[in-house]
Automatic annotation (TrEMBL):
An MF annotation (GO) of this entry: hydrolase activity
Gene3D superfamilies associated with the record: alpha/beta hydrolase (3.40.50.1820)
Keyword annotations of the record: Hydrolase
Domain of life: Eukaryota
The UniProt record lists the keyword Amino-acid biosynthesis: no
Protein name per its UniProtKB record: Putative 2-hydroxy-6-oxonona-2,4-dienedioate hydrolase
């Protein structure tokens, strides 16, 4: 696939990913979510025993980079890979990097068996 089409796909995917933000109820739903405490899975993280790959965009402005580091510390067998010049949607913004990290992770896991 040419770089032109990859760029067009990324642009299209980013726009589709933002569509929910344009809905009239989005702002109220966001405020309600935040004031309710949002998702709180902290008590469940210690239950994860599988090898885990954390992929994080270094420029994520939705979820703090500090939380990625905290998640990495809280998981007993985790690897964290951060993608430069990438925001909240690494699989859309930098799919080649995401695929590379997943392949490396799977190969590493297979090599340890």
């Amino acid at each position: 696939m040419s770089l032109k089409y990859i760029g067009m796909f990324r642009s299209f995917a980013n726009e589709i990913g933002r569509l929910h933000c344009l809905l009239p109820w989005w702002e109220d739903a966001t405020v309600d979510f935040m004031t309710s405490g949002g998702y709180n899975v902290a008590s469940q993280i210690k239950k994860v025993t599988q090898k885990t790959l954390i992929i994080w965009g270094e420029n994520d402005r939705i979820i703090s980079n500090k939380l990625a580091v905290q998640l990495h510390c809280d998981l007993s067998d985790a690897i964290i890979r951060q993608i430069p010049d990438c925001g909240h949607l690494p699989h859309v913004e930098r799919p080649d990097s995401v695929v590379k990290f997943i392949v490396e992770f799977v190969k590493r896991d297979q090599g340890s068996k």
